[in-house]
Specification:
Structural class: alpha/beta
Strand content: 25-35%
Bound molecules: adenosine-5'-triphosphate, magnesium ion
Distance between the termini: 40 Å
CATH architecture of the largest domain: 3-Layer(aba) Sandwich
Shape: flat
Number of strands: 15
CATH superfamily of the largest domain: Periplasmic binding protein-like II
Number of helices: 9
Length: 293
């Protein structure tokens, strides 16, 4: 068996589950080259001093907290739940979006949170659930269940459940009615606090962060090229507050220019409509692979 290099940074990711594909994509988009087979315990990167360790997601916060690995990628829900003391969140990764949702059986009399006061909630996230009720000046009993939480009310062990949902369809399918959102979550990059104090490790972590941020911001922007009469340039600049000032080049057609800039994904269509209305034409939109600021 191949050995891990002790001087390399160690990053723990979920071995097989909801976060695995997106995490491997992120690492590959960040230019890391490694082999990943389902049966592997870890992979060494060919082109970066990094070992990727494959674990159950529940174990990752503890491994990072104890310093067995330097970095981890997990759902923020696990951090909210386990509150590992020696861990710092470095980056939100914009995938693995879900909500910890409190729900009751459709026929339940409970209409609001207070109706559950002093009753029992079945959940994989008892700390998060208790914290939420405490913040609302209520108290709750919890029973910890790690799988098929939806069935607990039917078995009579709890009046409500708190479970992660992405679309809510699983809850609807099981005749459950959402009562409140406890929190929203997404995948995050976390670090062991001591690793951030080691000069060598910090330097490597920062290099990785530049790459991850480059991939993430590229996802949020599009590259736009358009033609426009010269006199509307000030208007176009106002509409597209890009990363920096736009690139402007003259066209053969007198009085016309070509303008190139980047625009944010979340206001993408609004911006395109405004540009068209302002007089821009032949608008071309391109995906961006990476942005290094
Ligand atoms: P493991 O075998 O690693 O313990 P798991 O079954 O505990 O896996 P998954 O169901 O793969 O975990 O979920 C991993 C993470 O994906 C969750 O902690 C959460 O952050 C995120 N997630 C995103 N959408 C959902 C969803 N609809 N339900 C559950 N988790 C979700
Ligand atoms: Mg798990």
């Amino acid at each position: 068996m191949q050995n891990m290099n002790k001087n390399n940074l160690k990053l723990a990711i979920q071995k097989s589950g909801r976060l695995t594909d997106d995490t491997l994509n992120l690492l590959r988009s960040a230019g890391l080259e490694f082999e990943s087979y389902k049966s592997k315990l870890f992979s060494s990167c060919r082109n970066f001093p990094l070992e990727i360790v494959y674990l159950r997601d529940d174990d990752i916060p503890d491994y990072v907290s104890s310093g067995s690995v330097d970095l981890g990628i997990v759902g923020q829900n696990l951090i909210f739940e386990e509150k590992p003391s020696n861990v710092k969140k470095l980056l939100n990764l914009q995938y693995g979006f879900c909500t910890l949702t409190l729900a009751v059986p459709k026929e339940s009399k409970a209409q609001k949170l207070a109706d559950l006061n002093n009753l029992t909630v079945a959940t994989t996230y008892p700390n998060s659930t208790k914290d939420f009720f405490n913040q609302n000046d209520l108290s709750i009993e919890t029973i910890k269940i790690t799988g098929s939480v939806e069935i607990a009310p039917m078995l009579g062990v709890a009046e409500a459940i708190a479970d992660l949902t992405a679309t809510g369809s699983t809850m609807a399918l099981n005749d459950l009615r959402p009562l409140a959102n406890i929190y929203d979550s997404e995948a995050v990059l976390i670090s062991n606090k001591q690793s951030l104090l080691s000069k060598n490790k910090l330097q490597l972590i920062n290099r990785l962060m530049v790459r991850f941020k480059g991939v993430l911001s590229a996802k949020n922007y599009k590259y736009v090229m358009m033609n426009a009469p010269e006199e509307i340039l000030p208007k176009l600049k106002k509409i597209t507050k890009g990363l920096k000032s736009p690139t402007v080049a003259p066209l053969v057609k007198a009085g016309w220019i070509s303008v190139q800039t980047v625009i944010k994904e979340d206001v993408f269509w609004e911006t395109i409509e405004k540009l068209k209305n302002a007089g821009a034409s032949s608008i071309i939109i391109l995906p961006i692979e990476k942005i290094i600021l």
